[in-house]
Amino acid sequence: MEPYYLPIRDEVAVFTAAYTSRLPVLLKGPTGCGKTRFVEHMAYRLGGEATNGIPGNLITVACHEDLTGSDLVGRYLIKGDETIWVDGPLTHAVRAGTICYLDEIVEARKDTIVLIHPLTDHRRLLPIDKKGELLEAHPDFLLVISYNPGYQSALKDLKHSTRQRFVTIEFDYAPRELEAQVITHESGVAMEVGLSLARFGEKVRHLRASGLEEGVSTRLLVYAGQLMRSGISPPRACEVAVSKSLTDDHESQRAIAELARAVFA
Amino acid sequence: MSPVWLTHLVASEGGAAAHRRAQALGPEVHAEIVAATDPLAATSSVLAQRCYLHAAAAWQAFGAAGFRRWVAIGHEVATGTARGVEGALAYFAVAPVAFGPGGVSTAAAWCDLARELAARSPRLAATFLERTSAVLVRPDALPRLRAWLAVGRALHDTPGWRGGAVAHVFFNAEPAVVVALAPEHYRLWAETRLALAPVVKDSASLTGLPPGVGAWTDAERAALLELVLRFGARSPEAAATCYRSLPPAVAPLDPTSRAALLAALGRFDATSGPEVAAVAPVLGAIVETVPAAVRVRALGQVCEVVERSSAAGLAALRSLPRLYEEADPGGIERWFRAGLAIAEGNPAAGRAFFALESRTSVAVLGAGSTAATLEDTEAVWRRFVQMLSGRPAGVRVQPGVSLRPVLEECPAENEIALPERIDWRPTHEENYRLFRVLAAVLAGRREFGTYAFVPPAEDDVSGAALAAFLQRPEQPALLEELFLLAEGARIHHRLAAHYPGLAEDLRWGATCVLERAAGESSPGLTLVLDTLLAIAVGGTGNRPAWLSPAVVSAVVTALGPLAEPSASVEQAMAIAQRLAATLALVGRPRSADLEPMPFSLADLPLIPDDFGLPLTGEAPAITSFPGEGAGDDDIAVDLAAPADELPGMAVPLGAEELARLLEAGLRPSQATGDDSGRSGLFVTQLRGKLPSALRDQRRDRAADSALAGRRPRSVGRGEDADPCYFYDEWDELIGDYRSRWCRLYERELTGDGGEFFTRTVADNVRLIPEVRRQFQRIRPAMYRPLSGLEDGEDFDLNAVIDARTDRRARRPPSTRLYRSRVRAERDVATLFLLDMSASTDEPLGGASAAEGARRTIDVVREALVVMAVALEELGDAYAIYGFSGEGRAKVDFYHVKGFTESLARPVKARIGGISPKGSTRMGTALRHATTKLRNVAARSRHLLLLSDGFPQDLDYGDDRRSHAYGIRDTAAALREAEAAGITPFCVTVDRAGHDYLREMCDTRRYMVIDDTAALPRELPKIYEREVLSRVVPG
User: Fold this and answer.
1) Burial of B808 (0-12, 13-18, 19+ CB in 10 A)
2) Which of B434, B368, B375 shows the shortest CA–CA distance to A251?
3) Global confidence as pTM
4) Which residue does chain A place closest to B379, by CA atoms?
5) Are residues B500 and A69, on separate chains, in Cβ contact within 8 Å?
6) Rounded to 5°, angle at Cα B373 from B371 and B377
7) How far is B902 from chain A, CA to nearest CA, in Å?
8) Yes or no, beta carbons of A252 and B500 under 8 Å apart
9) Which tens digits make up the pLDDT trace of B532-576?
10) How many helices (H) and strands (E) does chain A have?
C-alpha cells in the first residue's frame, strides 16, 4: 500500500526529477514534519511494492552517535571457523539499486560522511576498504539523507563539502489546513478536531527559539488526535502527547496546557 | 444698714443679682443671711462676698439650719489654718447644687478631708478644694475623693525634699482625672505623671488625661498608664510620645479592637519604648487594615508573639497590613504558628520572620495566599501570549486590574502589561483564571491587529501609530478609554470565535467584573467602562444601580457591529470616536491613572443623533478645568492655585493621583467646589486614605523591581536611572535568608580614554608575550583521547587484547581497535569580579602614600590588562565587573566588560577607570555575578573573585567589629554559585586572608598572594590551573 503523504509544495515533482537524474537528495527540516514519510512515499511511487527483494524500494538507516563506517558498509563476522563478509545497509542498497535513506546524518560519526562522498558525485562508487573492493552503484541507486538544522550545535553541522553534493528540499510544518488533513487522515479524528489540533500545533510552534528547542511535530499532533479518538479529553491528550513530550520546562508545560484549554472547547 | 462688703458687692453686676435673689426671700431671711455672712468679713471681706453670692441658693437648697451649717463649715475652713482663706474661697465658689444629693453633709465631709490635708500642708488643702469641687456632684464623689486624698497624702509623705512638690503637682490635676480614673488607678496616674514630667515641657498638658481617653474602660486606661510608666523607666521621651499619640491614633477603632490593641501593647517590655513610640501615631491605621471580623484574633496573635519577644511582636504588628493584603486568615494563622516555632529556637530569626524579612517568612505567607501573583505565573503568560500571537513577549507590571488593559506605547518592544497580583476572587484558581483572561486579551490585541491600526488619511503604519493617534492633542479627553472599550469588545468576539476554550473564560471574566461593580457604590472611570464592556460582551449579572439603562443600551448598540468577524480596529476607533463625541463627561481623565474620578455615567447627558435616544440635557463642555491645556505633569501647579480665584473649580482627586502629587513635594491647597455630590476623594478625606494609597504605590514600585531582579531586560530604574536589582542575603544570626535585603545598582564605569591600558601593555612588554606563550603551550594539551575507533593514530591495546581473546574464543571480535586524539572543544566562560573597596587605595608594601606610589588597585588593574590580552589570544569568553557600595540599599556593580563585548576601545577605557570606591558587600556582588554567569551558555563557568580583604560594609551584621556576618553571607553566596554549576575561586592579596577564606570556602578554592606586586604574573597561572585544567572536554 502506498504510504500516505500530502504534498505541500512541489516536493514530489522535484524529487522525481532528481531521481530521474540520480541526483542525491538532502531533506532538511524539523523533527516530525514528514521527511521520512515523504521518502517512503516517493520510494513506493518510484519503485513500487519492492525492488530486488527490498520492500518499499527503500533502506532506511537511523544514524546515531556510535554509527561507524562499517556499520553502514558491512563487516566480517566469524562463523564457525570461517570469517564471512556481511553487507551493511548502504552496500545492500548500492547493490540492489534502491533508495538508501540516512536519517539524521549529522548524528553519525565523521568517518561515515567520508564514505558517502564518492557515492554522491559522478563516480557513484562505494569503496569497501576491508575487502579491497570498489563497488559501482546500481543504476537505480539513490542516496537520500536528512538533516535537522533545528538543533544543530556548532559541533554537529554538516560540512560544506558534504552539503554541496545534494539537491536540497526544505521541509517545514504544513500550513494549518494541510496539516489538519494529515492529522485527520492519520488519526481518524473529525476534520474539526484536526483543524483545532493544527491550530494548536501552529501556536505551540511560536515558542520555538524561546523556551522550546523544537516546535511540536505533526507526528505528536497525530498522536494527540489518536488519543482523543480513543476518548481521552483534549487537554489531557495534548498534555501527554505534546507538552510533556516536548519539554521538561515546567513553565512551558503550563503555558502549553493553557493554550490547549483555550483552543479546545 | 448694709455692711461695707455688701455695699461694695451690690455695686457689681453679679453682686446686685445675688442681692436681689437674697432680698426676694423676704426681709427677715435676708437679714439673717447678712448676719450669718458678716462674721466672715472679719477674716476677709472677699470671703463674705463670695459666700453671699451663693447664699440665697444655699438657703433654698439646705434650709435655714443647713444654711447656717454651710456658712459655719466655710468659716471653719477659713480660720482653721494659716492659708484657710484660699480654701474657704474655693469652698464658697461651689454652687450649692454642685454638692449633689448629699448637700451640706457632702460639703462637710469634703472640708473634713481638706482639713485633714491641711494638717500637713494648708496650701495643698486649698488646691484640693479648688480642683476637686467639680467632682462633688457625683454620687460616688466622697469615696473617690478619699482615695484621691490618700494617694496625695502618701506622695506628700514620701521621704525627701520632693514629696511636697510632687503632691502639689498631683493635686493640681484636672477634676476629670479624678472622675475618669478608677480610684485604684490614682496612684498609677500619679506615677505616670511623675515619669513624664522631666521630658514634657508643657506641664499644663499633663494635668489632664489625653483627649478621648475618658470614653475608655478602666482597664484600657490602666493599660495605657502602665505602658507609659513602663516605657518611662527606660525612655521618658518614648513614654511621652506614646502618652500623647496613642489615644488619638486608636480613636477610630471600635472598642473591642481598641481593647485588644491596648492589651497587646500592654505586654511590651520596657526596652521597646522607642520602637513602639515610633509607630504609635499609626497604630490605629495599621489595625484598621485588618478586616474588622478578625481584628481581635489578629491582635491576639500579636499578643502571643509579644509575650515571647517584644521586638518580634512589634514587627508582627507592623506586618499586619501586608499580611491581610496578601493572605487569608487561615494562611495568616499558619504564618504566625510557623513564626512562633522559629522564634522559639532563635529570637533574632523570629524577629526577622515577623518583620517579613526572612525568606522563610515570605514563603510561608505566599503559601497561605489565594492571590495569583505575576511573579509566580509570569513565565506562563509570557509563553502563552507568545504562542497565541506568534511574537515574543516580555512582561511588565501594570497597577490595577482592568478588563481593558492599557495599550502599549511601543508595540515593537514586545512588552505586555499585567497586574502584579489578582486577589478579587476567593480562590487561587479563580484569580489565576482572571490572569488567563487578561493574558488572552493582550494576546488577542496582537493577533487580531489592534496595533496594525492605520489612522484615517495617513499611511503611517509603524505600530506606534495607534498610541500617537490617541495622544494627539485634538482628540477628545476620553477617546483612549473609549477605544479600549470598543476594541475590548472586538477582541473579545474574535477570541471567543477563534478559541472555543477561551469563550467561557472571557464570559466568566465579564461576570466577575459585574459582580465587583455591584459591590461598588462610587465606581471610578475604569470600573464604569469595564462594567460597560462586561455587559456588552455578555457577562451574566445585574446592571449596577449607578449605571443608567439608557447608557448601557446606547453603548451596547454602538458596540454591536464589532461582533462581526470582519470588524476591524479602524471600525472600533470610529465607534470610540462617536462615543467620545456623544458621551460628554464631567472630568478630565486622560488615562487610567487618574482613577477614581468624580465620574458616573448614571447622570450623563446623551445626544440622541446616533442612538435615537431622548435628549436628556445639554452636554456640558469639557473645558475649564484647572490644568487644562497643560500637560498632566503640570497639574501640581494648577492645584496650588488659590481657590478664591477659581470658584467652583475644585476637582476631587483620586487617591493615587494625590499620593503622586504629595510625593512630588506638593502641598495641596483646599479649594471649594460644587462637586460634592460626586464620588472621588477630597483633601479633607485624606486622613485614613493616604496611607493605603501610598502603600499601593510603594507596592507597585516594589513589584517593578521584584521582576527586575529576575529579568535583566526590563529592569527597574534606581534613583539615578541605573538598573537596580534586589538580592536576598544570608543572615547567620537568624539562620535564614533575609528576603530582598540588598539593592544592587548596575553602574557604568567612566573610563579614562584607554591610556592606562596602553601604558600597561607597554610596561609589561616582557610579561605579556610570556603569558601568551604559556597559554599557547596549553593548547596542545587541549586534546582528549578517544578510543574505540575503527581507524586512528594508534592501537588501543586493551581493545586489541579483547579482540584477540574473542578471536580465540571464536566470537566475532570488535573492529574498533584504534585510538585517536580529538581536539577538545573548549566551552568556558570566566567572570572576573573585582573588589573596588576603598582599601584598595592603600599603597603597596606599606610605603608612604607618596604621589605616584603604586596602589593595590593599580596592580589589580594591571593584572587584568595582562589577563585580557592573553585571553583574547586564547579565545575564551570572559567578563570583568567590579563592585563596591555603601550599605545594603546601595551596592554598586560596575560594568567593565560583558561576555559578548570584545576588547575594544570602550572596554580598554573602562579598565583604566577602575578606581577605589566604598566598602565591600561581597555576598550581593557575588550573587549578581552568579546571575550574569547563569545567563551564559557555557559548559564550564568560572567566577574569579579578586579582593584585598574581608567582606565589610556599614550594616553587614549588627556588630561592625565582627566580620562573621559578612563572611558567612559571602560563604553562602559562594555556595549558591556552586549550586548553579559555577566554579568560584577567590584570590586575595590580603596576607591575613587565610583566616577568613578558610571559613568562606574550601581550601582548594582560594589563594592568598603574599606579594601583591606579583599579581599580574600570578593571575594567568591561576587561570591556567583553576580554569583551563578543569575544563570539561566537549
Assistant:
1) exposed
2) B375
3) 0.56
4) A251
5) no
6) 125
7) 20
8) no
9) 899 988 888 888 888 888 888 888 888 888 988 888 888 898 888
10) 12, 11
